[in-house]
Amino acid sequence: MDRIVVVGASVAGVNAVETLRKNGFDGDVTLVGAEPQLPYDRPPLSKEALRTGPATADLALRPPNWYEEHGITLRLGQPAANLSAIDRQVELADGSRLRYDGLIVATGSAVRHWTQAEHPVRTLRTWSDAAALHGELRHGRHLVIIGAGFIGLEIAATARELGLDVSVIEIEAAPLARVLGAETGQWFADLHAANGVSMHCGSRIERLERSGDQTKLELSDGTALTADLLVAGVGVTPAAAWLAGSNISLDDGIVCDAQLRTTLPDVVAAGDVARWHNPVFGYDMRVEHWLNAVEQGKHAALSLLGSDEPYTHVPYFWSDQFDAKIHSVGITADADASTVRRSDADGISVVFGRHGVVCGALCVNAPRDVVRYRQAIRNGMPWGDLVAA
Question: Helix or strand or coil: residue 302?
Fold first, then answer.
């Protein structure tokens, strides 16, 4: 294997190329990125970078000279357009082609656009999104956010700290209720309401009307809002459309085995775009978390170099909203049981079970609980033992 191409200048892609070099691969390595910026970190985009603007030095995953020092060829600002598995070539948007002996796909996720696209609605996924939104928040008065997922709630918290009036519209009865349950969702609603966010849950937008620089909204419960700025946070989808027709298996992402190998020879995947069989839980999953992208990028590189070790991972992510330090471990969306272990004004800890074992936990302002429950998940702790304790 002389030439490895990594498609996706993401945290998974950067950790993949670094792992290749650390493990003795001295052939050609090319890192392809759809955006013109050097690879950067995404979690701060809804927090620090939104407050102050995205700064290169603060967000860069590696220093600018790191890539040259490690012999990494960068092809930035050129998204992948097509994969020819027979020719072992990746075609870029400008028509150029890159030959490979091994390929790592780490293209991450693409933002899901709100259906009312004819109205000026911002999203937050990229460096450019953060720069544009930062500029508009400085002059905005009333921000309306469509969707009370984690990204929407983080933007809401940041905007309130900047002094804006903020309203959040959520079709479910409470934020995050679909994945965390009604009681936990209500805790998040109360947190934001206590910090001045106007929460409109269990409601949908029935009508929008543009009036000068403002947008007038009518909700299904009869509420009327006037927004200076609209932001939609309605989720993401795996960025795998460019692989259609390549004979790689796709199903809510790129289908991988436990080693992150795809259905094409010498092609592995990592990060948000990869759907793999996780031995810890015994079923296929796709995880959109920073730590998973780091670890999968490393593991995919090792698999491409010949390792046969399965990738085992207990999902983990964090979120900061106002004074709440939020940590989630394991899986919550597929749970069939849950129990609130603590809930007060300062925080909440909720544990989730699936098929008789502990499968996930959400802990707010409870760092010790995070460590304990993550170990319980990895050990397959019986649900009955948790309840008895």
Answer: helix
